[in-house]
């Protein structure tokens, strides 16, 4: 076979390096993401293909040709990370939420705009408007028929929200001019970690308007929002803006969850795994008492704090 000339060989090497960095970057992101421009749900292979065929990748290849090795790797990591920034949705489930099987292989923008699908379409449109190409919703981005995938998602959920470039909180029961303190969102189990984990959050009201018309890029930097969050959750603002998952002050962390509820009883414990940085088996079908028992036993084992039994 004829040998590749030097420029072609060099370009092939750089392309392979870029591809390797893409795969490594995606290991820390959800395995399925919605492409906000097309509205199509993409697995990791599809995400890689999107990048390798993109204008950003072509520009990266051109830039790499004039860099030394160290600069090249820094540039590749920077551009790949920027391309795969993603937005997470936090919301209270309603009627007609689209599941994986409902949207797989179909652009969501071409589907009837009603119920949960209308919410998903609006979420992706908002994310695209903020210049993010990738978005995630717990309704349709997890294969809930796969116990292994469900276990991975529950174990990784806190990390995904923490890693997100932005988390959009949709408050379906809050009119544009109202306070959000009475929203059902504050009484759900899973939304506790969805509030604490992200560094950047934007609250949207019923009609997809920014809460209180606050146009900053992060509502966690708004004093008026933090004061309302403290009143609605009983959580000090220092935890709201700079939360670390750990066993520290375990009793308080359990108390934050004490007034919240979940559709499935077991989830009240599962939704706390990320807050304590615990990794325990997910066993749907066991009683809520057993699930909480396992959680409390692990917290006591690691922290030695028996006061949590009075949470």
UniProtKB/TrEMBL annotation:
Domain of life: Eukaryota
InterPro entries cross-referenced by the UniProt entry: HET (IPR010730)
Domain Heterokaryon incompatibility: 86-175
Protein name: Heterokaryon incompatibility domain-containing protein
Pfam family, any one: HET
């Amino acid at each position: 076979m004829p040998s590749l000339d030097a420029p072609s060989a060099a370009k092939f090497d750089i392309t392979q390096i870029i591809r390797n960095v893409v795969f490594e970057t995606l290991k820390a992101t959800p395995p399925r993401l919605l492409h906000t421009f097309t509205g199509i749900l993409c697995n990791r292979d599809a995400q890689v293909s999107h990048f390798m065929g993109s204008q950003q990748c072509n520009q990266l290849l051109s830039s790499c040709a004039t860099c030394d090795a160290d600069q090249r790797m820094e540039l590749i990591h920077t551009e790949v990370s920027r391309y795969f920034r993603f937005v997470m949705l936090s919301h209270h489930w309603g009627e007609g939420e689209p599941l994986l099987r409902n949207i797989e292989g179909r652009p969501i923008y071409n589907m009837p705009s009603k119920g949960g699908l209308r919410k998903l379409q609006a979420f992706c449109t908002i994310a695209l408007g903020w210049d993010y190409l990738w978005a995630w919703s717990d309704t349709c981005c997890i294969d809930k028929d796969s116990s292994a995938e469900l276990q991975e998602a529950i174990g990784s959920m806190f990390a995904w929200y923490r890693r997100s470039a932005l988390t959009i909180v949709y408050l379906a029961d809050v009119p544009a001019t109202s306070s959000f303190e009475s929203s059902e969102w504050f009484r759900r189990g899973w939304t506790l970690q969805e509030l604490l984990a992200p560094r950047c959050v934007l609250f949207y009201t019923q009609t997809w308007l920014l809460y209180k018309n606050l146009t900053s890029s992060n509502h966690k930097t708004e004093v008026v929002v933090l004061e309302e969050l403290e009143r609605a959750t009983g959580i000090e603002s220092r935890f709201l803006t700079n939360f670390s998952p750990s066993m520290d002050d375990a009793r308080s962390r359990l108390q934050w969850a004490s007034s919240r509820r979940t559709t499935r009883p077991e989830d009240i414990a599962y939704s706390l795994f990320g807050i304590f940085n615990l990794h325990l088996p997910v066993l749907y079908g066991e009683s809520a008492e057993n699930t909480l028992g396992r959680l409390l036993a692990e917290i006591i084992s690691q922290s030695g704090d028996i006061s949590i039994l009075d949470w």
